[in-house]
Amino acid sequence: MGICDSTMELSKTLFVVALLLSGAASMKSQAYFNETGDLPCHFTNSQNISLDELVVFWQNQDKLVLYELYKGEENPQNVHPKYKGRASFDQNNWALQLHNVQIKDTGTYQCFIHHKGPQGLVSIHQMSSDLSVLANFSQPKIIISNRTENSDTINLTCSSIQGYPKPKKMSFVLKTKNSTTEYDVIMNILQDNFTDLYDVSISLSISVSPERNVSIFCVLQPDSTQTQLVSQPYNIDAKPPMPTPDRVLTVALLLLLFMSVCGLFVLMLMKRKRKQPGPSRECGESVLVPSAERHCVATSLSAAFWSLFAQPRLATKTSRWLEGEVSPLDPT
Questions:
Q1: Structural domains in the chain plus CATH codes
Q2: SMART domains from the entry (predicted)?
Q3: Does the N terminus or the C terminus of the chain have fewer Cβ atoms within 10 A?
């Protein structure tokens, strides 16, 4: 009978207490998605009243009861089904702990404390608190699409998921050695119908100078109470300068001309040497090229290789080989 009486008495007093609530102080509290939030009551109990003489309960803005403590014992009969098993009373702090907090739990909550006396329930304390629920977005991630090796234009996409509330801003930041440029882009926002969490993304096509080293970041600015999130950098290294077509063609023609002249010169000298009397040569024995001829070929090759490939060491080695100073198989 005690529980039935408490239910009837509690129902009768809800309306009266709700009217008194308009003058009560309101506290702000925050909780993170899927974690535990505190709904304070801040009752001092200066008269040291026993819990056996008190009725304590919390309700939301729709007058749905989250938790009731009737004369020192939990009374789940008045608790709304969506809150059953999710709330626990912290007697030391006179606060209600709401577990597994969801985005839908955002709202205003009231704490009521009544003294159970001979004349029924007497309100001795009430308090209102506003609960806001946050969910941290994932670290932004940059994805590059449709970029070819010879193209200076890149298509960027950045995304971040599972956050709340809706972020304020999302942008790309391009950094070079001497400059920083921010690109503000309109966000694409999707909200999950079940969890109410947000997924956000932005896209941008930009041209990047191939002569500079570039680092690209994606920056997400959530609610003012949350920390700014920055992606890992996407780095683009400067391309080495390529020789101009005119220079390549000129060097190629010079190389062909030098080789033709020197080759003709060597053949003429070899032909003249064969006509002169001298010791016979066995088949397969190399015909020695005089140093003057080798010097001509070496000079031509050195100039051509140095101009085209900027590798003087290779040209020098070729020259030394033709001068007879080193073997062609010498690695030095």
A1: 27-134 (2.60.40.10), 141-236 (2.60.40.10)
A2: IGv
A3: N
